[in-house]
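Preliminary data (for renewal application), S-adenosylmethionine complex.
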Amino acid sequence: MQEPSAERSHRLNAYLLGVLCYNCHAKKGISPEMGKKKIYNRKDAYYRKAKKEGFRSRAAYKLKELNSKYGFLKEGIKALELGCWPGGWLEVASSAIGEKGVVVGIDLKEVEPLNSNCAVFLIQGDAGETEVLKDAVRCAGGKFHLLLSDMSPKLTGIRDVDEANMGEVYGTVLNAIETVLLPKGTLIFKGFKGEAYGEIASCLKKLFNKVKRIELDSTRKSSNEFYTYCTGYRG
Ligand SMILES: C[S@@+](CC[C@H](N)C(=O)[O-])C[C@H]1O[C@@H](n2cnc3c(N)ncnc32)[C@H](O)[C@@H]1O
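Predicted structure:
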């Protein structure tokens, strides 16, 4: 059976994103910043707060901050997180969504089961594989209102390699949208400053009514990360 044209075009976009990232960085060589390690305090205030309040990761406060700004964690919805280990976001999302909702988490690593009123399903696998995404939809009994991605590639300190890997993560997010997200749904994902982001941003503007880039107080000051909040999926 031939794939629907929208799906083909998403796949093509994701593929082109990977190729573009690879091509634009392959030409550039290594900059003086590459390989310089940023020094940061791993055990900062948010780390200590997470320990004290019993969250699995300091990342929990990033989702809390995003939700306090935009209020997307609504009771009873279905939410999927890509790249969920160790589970700080899952803890925050499942407690806000409650017993009438469903939360599914996917990670390459095994995630410890959660103690929650909400139905939480954990899938160990690669979010880049369509079968894994379809499993998530099956677990939830249908597509999701909210797609979260906190995936990050392993950083090497070599700018070209990191940019290409980030492009691959963006491609994974882009490919997931059509398989898992309900029309009018919301997407929030982590990005890193760099050229790869421009490509995904222009794809997303065609797929969503609103696309907004957000910097968080809870992100470490030394980090290049930011989040993108997309609403009104035109699927
Ligand atoms: C920053 S951690 C996520 C933290 C999590 N949100 C929390 O609150 O605890 C990023 C995760 O993305 C996962 N990841 C990266 N690429 C992935 C992929 N293709 N499929 C599934 N997980 C992936 C990594 O294994 C890693 O555990």
